[in-house]
Amino acid sequence: MSAPAFATIGWRGREVRIECQWIAPERGDAPLVVFLHEGLGSVAMWKDFPARLCEAAGVRGLVFSRPGYGRSTPRAEDEIWDVDFMHRQAHEVLPALFSALGLGHEKPWLFGHSDGGSISLLYASRFPDKVAGLVVLAPHIFVEDVTVANIENARTAYLGTDLPQKLGRYHDSADSAFWGWNRIWLHPPFRDWNIEKELDAIRCPVLAVQGIDDEYGTLAQIRGIAARVSGCELLEIPECGHSPHRDQPDRVIVAATSFITKNRRETS
């Protein structure tokens, strides 16, 4: 992978720098896979998984940290995310980042985990002609009690353990990353958040993956995607929690590589 670099976008009335890392940019004619991290993720927290997937699939990769995460600009002290925070990432941040990086001509694949999976779905819904396909791991399409319960547990851990120090290895501001995510998910109006109807607009191939032992959601999430998106393929992995790319990386790489390769062949 290349050394981390930064792009600058205008968002929420100020300039925001976005931490980016390219994988195999020399594969100029290969498809581009854009990796969208989870609610507490960053470029560094993916570790070597994106590089391994890109090597197996023969594709280029772009890994980035969303505003407030990793080495990207932290949230302003008075910046409170609202119920539409994932919509704004999909409808505002992603298009601005692609424009800043000169990717307006590309139709990338989006590979999203958890909140990043939801953002990927929302982008493909809003811009159905600008995405080649999706691989989404443990995405959320509505709010479940089990999700909220474990996010409450995460808050307790952040306040009472060394979790801030652990997150500090991956974020310029652990507080920015943690509280931006935690407060909105525990905000009572967010319990009504639901993007099921928006899935009807998705036209690209979708592979939806979830661990059977996912502690942050049930299989109703990916099965709900399959009920709305024609041709969506599901992969339900036993002995696997909320992070399939960490718990079962080889299985995810094989499945994603096969899915991308098959759909490249069918559309070429």
UniProtKB/TrEMBL annotation:
<dbReference type="InterPro" id="IPR029058">
    <property type="entry name" value="AB_hydrolase_fold"/>
</dbReference>
<feature type="domain" description="AB hydrolase-1">
    <location>
        <begin position="33"/>
        <end position="253"/>
    </location>
</feature>
<protein>
    <submittedName>
        <fullName>Alpha/beta hydrolase</fullName>
    </submittedName>
</protein>
<keyword id="KW-0378">Hydrolase</keyword>
<dbReference type="Pfam" id="PF12697">
    <property type="entry name" value="Abhydrolase_6"/>
</dbReference>
<dbReference type="GO" id="GO:0016787">
    <property type="term" value="F:hydrolase activity"/>
</dbReference>
<dbReference type="InterPro" id="IPR000073">
    <property type="entry name" value="AB_hydrolase_1"/>
</dbReference>
<dbReference type="InterPro" id="IPR050266">
    <property type="entry name" value="AB_hydrolase_sf"/>
</dbReference>
<dbReference type="GO" id="GO:0016020">
    <property type="term" value="C:membrane"/>
</dbReference>
